[in-house]
Amino acid sequence: YGYQDFPDGTNEVAALKKILNDAWEDDIIYLSNQDMSANPKVDQWSNGNEPAAELNRMMQVRRAALDRFGERAIKTGMPLATMEEVLVPLYMHHRFQVTAAASALGGMHYIYGMRGDGRVPVRPVPASEQNAALAALLATLDPEELAVPKSVLDKMPPRPPGYRRTRELFPRYTGLMFDAISPATVAADHTVSEILNASRAARMVEQNALNASIPGLDAVLNRLIDGTFGIQTSNGYHSEISRAIERVVVDRMIGLAGRATMPQVRSITSYRLEALGRQLIQRTGDTSELAHCQALARDITRFLEQPGDAVAPPVTLAAPPGAPIGQPAMNWLQALEPACSLLEW
């Protein structure tokens, strides 16, 4: 459009308009990084035209790779502990697609419309797309999907001298030893924090008020709780991962109920927390299960009685860095930028 040369006698205005019309027909629209959280057509480091379907596919690829993962991932003669450097990006293979799929929740299909262009400038993401996205996101919270393969756990010793820990590795509670639970906590927190983004939650409330077929915040919270609490597991490891996921959900719900700027978001989330607390008190199980449920119930009660004192989660595990390209790392280029580029024209 900006550099097109037309033959003599061409109606340039009409020809330029045709270029734009052809672009619209091909669904080529101008949007930028600022639109990532609200428009599912705008993604970074993700593939596919359907975020939910692509997330499901990525989870299948991730599972196949994890099932095959082992010491062959590193060179012969390297410390076995360095398998973790390869495991991290594989285990978190789905992280960017989680962000992409979550943008459909409370999302909007929109363009930077112009007066007179005759196009629909904004419309909510259809209920079917939002429900598919939520289902795909909840599937990433399956304890079996978040378990580190036993073949890896059995061959992951502490790191030897000279191979210090870096931010590219999983955080851990276990000191020198590889933590089998913290990767699940990190991955679950990424998914849950995307679902319970405060601005996204506010859009859920508004969209459901305008169109009852679109899932509102209450429905999303119900599905999140139903999909993560009281899950039947096949062994103790999966049970402990399930408890870690439940802890993430409660902490994130408390954070949303305490920090969201929209009053409706705070009230709906607090209501669901209170109901969840009553359910937790009635749960049965072994000592680990009862201790876990009672701790969650106490934290919920503490927040509801003194919300200002119990907003921040007690412990957070930071995920290893994600995006391969980031603005902060490029700040050194500002010294080479001409001063005139900083002016507002």
Structural description of this entry:
There is one protein chain. This protein has one domain. Helix content is 50%, strand content 2%. It has 13 helices and two strands, in the order ααααββααααααααα. A two-stranded antiparallel ribbon has the order 1-2. α2 packs antiparallel against α4, α2 runs parallel beside α5 and α11 packs antiparallel against α12 (263-281). The two termini are 23 Å apart.
Q: What's the layout of helices and strands?
A:
Layout: H1 12-25, H2 51-68, H3 83-91, H4 95-102, E1 108-110, E2 122-124, H5 127-139, H6 143-146, H7 150-153, H8 182-195, H9 198-210, H10 217-228, H11 236-259, H12 263-281, H13 287-305
Helix pairs in contact: 2-4, 2-5, 4-8, 8-11, 10-12, 11-12, 11-13, 12-13
Protein name: EcxA zinc-binding domain-containing protein
Pfam families: DUF4953
InterPro entries: EcxA_zinc-bd
Q: Outline the low-pLDDT stretches.
A: 325-330, 341-345
- Mind telling me the C-alpha Rg? 24 Å
Query: How many structural domains?
Result: 1
- The sequence of SSEs as H and E is HHHHEEHHHHHHHHH
Measure the end-to-end span. Answer: 23 Å
Structure classification: mainly alpha
- Count the helices. How many? 13
Sheet-strand content, in percent, reads: under 5%
Strand order of the largest sheet: 1-2
> Based on DSSP secondary structure assignment, what is the total number of beta strands?
2
Question: What is the global morphology?
Answer: flat
The largest β sheet comes out as: 2 strands, antiparallel
Q: Work out the helicity level.
A: 40-55%
Overall pLDDT, averaged?
Answer: 90
Protein name: EcxA zinc-binding domain-containing protein
Organism: marine metagenome
InterPro entries: EcxA_zinc-bd
Domain EcxA zinc-binding: 1-229
